[in-house]
Amino acid sequence: MAVADGWECHALSVDYGQRHRAELDAARRVASALGAVEHRVVRIDLGIFGGSALTDPAIEVPRTPSEGIPVTYVPARNTIFLALALAHAEVCEASAIFTGVNAVDYSGYPDCRPEFVAAFERLANVATKRAVEGAPIEILAPIIELGKGEIVRRGHALGVDFALTVSCYNADAAGRACGECDACRFRRAGFAEAGIPDPTRYRGNDLK
After folding, report:
1. Averaged pLDDT, 77-89
2. CATH architecture group of domain 10-147
3. CA–CA separation, 104 and 99 (whole Å)
């Protein structure tokens, strides 16, 4: 969506000690396919804090929907991600940061809500040299209020190859999805709602 709007995109991924690396491999493929100016990977280790099924191997990824905020929530993850993106944006003189957070068909993470994005934008514009010198930065979340079906339709219209992407919380080393976690359920429902074939590679043939 950013590319379609004419932005030159500097893609940033974070290797934060997550359960699998398939999403990082997918991010490289997507950045290349969409013509990003560059794609950088920042390495930090949120696993030293634990507290999430995505960073602590002792906590299992739920296979059924759970009440409240699930154990796949990574404490402060999007705050940390946006802070890293803010540093990169300031150095490369970017005027906007795009984030793919979504607050419609989602797991209830507090750092995916519009009020979080708005609050971080306010923070960014009191915390950076460029902002206080008169060049504020926007935090743009173009899919935050879209359902997964609409996200799939928008992506399809823009020519996105969804086969390059990985959503699963528990993908295997080959990037094949489990088909059972929240991310898989939301993704599968989105393709069904959009009426577009789901290209996701699942470990179980019955889910294809």
Report:
1. 97
2. 3-Layer(aba) Sandwich (3.40)
3. 15
